[in-house]
Request: fold
Amino acid sequence: MKVVIPVAGAGAKLRPHTYTQPKPLIPLAGKTILSFILDQLIEEGLKDFVFIIGYLGEKIKIYIEENFPDINATFIVQTEFSGTGHAVYLAKDVIEANEEILIVYGDTICDYNVKEIINAKQSMVAVKKVDDPRDFGVAELGQANRIKNLVEKPKIPKSNMALVGIYKICETQILFDTIEKNFIDNTNEEFHLTNVLNTMVQQGVNMTAFTVQNWFDCGKKETLLETNALLLNKVEYASEEIPFFDNTIIIHPVSIAKDCLIENSIIGPHVTIGEKATIRSSIIKNTIIGSYSVIEKVVLHASLLGSDTSICGASQSLNIGDNTEIDLS
Reply:
């Protein structure tokens, strides 16, 4: 089985960070989004990966080669962003006839039984119940969780079961034939994998849905920070042994990378700090800070800071009497 990971998107909702850093390499709870995905799959014995790269793709290629040298990695460039359906189609030349594939979007972190999906005898689609499914692909289910219909971002959803971006496909020859017959002549228009799979379902291909236990949303700043907090609450992702920092209070859970300099500060909870960052005289909570950043004399909360960031705030010395109100915002 090969794993196909589309990572060609521009990550527009996370700008300005994605102007210089591809979305899958955004830091999260001491790792990157992409490393969460790969570690989970490698742990279950998967080793053949096809990465569909595009925007800032060279950075992803270098990251994979440096951090995951033991996997068999193939990189295919998507020169025109024509959607997820087109991205998957680009892998056709490295997929053997009806070789099973696992498609995992490069920003999809989920808790699910990977081995069970790998061993499934039929094609499967990952879903999660959401309150408002209009911004997602949506699955309509029949008996025994069999897929009846798949719709991309419906205005009036008939189901609240959202597609999370994980697909196990057994009929890969039918997949690529369906794209060529129904979609490939319209590559100037973006087409979604949702629409391709729905065409297959309507042609009689058996697909069933499986529900993921947790779906960690990395789509935009607010949800990325929520995901950072949720992951840090898991014991395995928060830093356990934190070195001594001069005159500093650490409020767990946090993730602090190696070689950081922190003094006269309060850090946490739910803070991720990249390697070799410097923080002085600051209060920081619910924030992600990139590597090599310098933060001085600021109060930060619900913030996302890229690597090599430099922020220096103002400090005040106050002598305030009774019945006084001062707003420094």
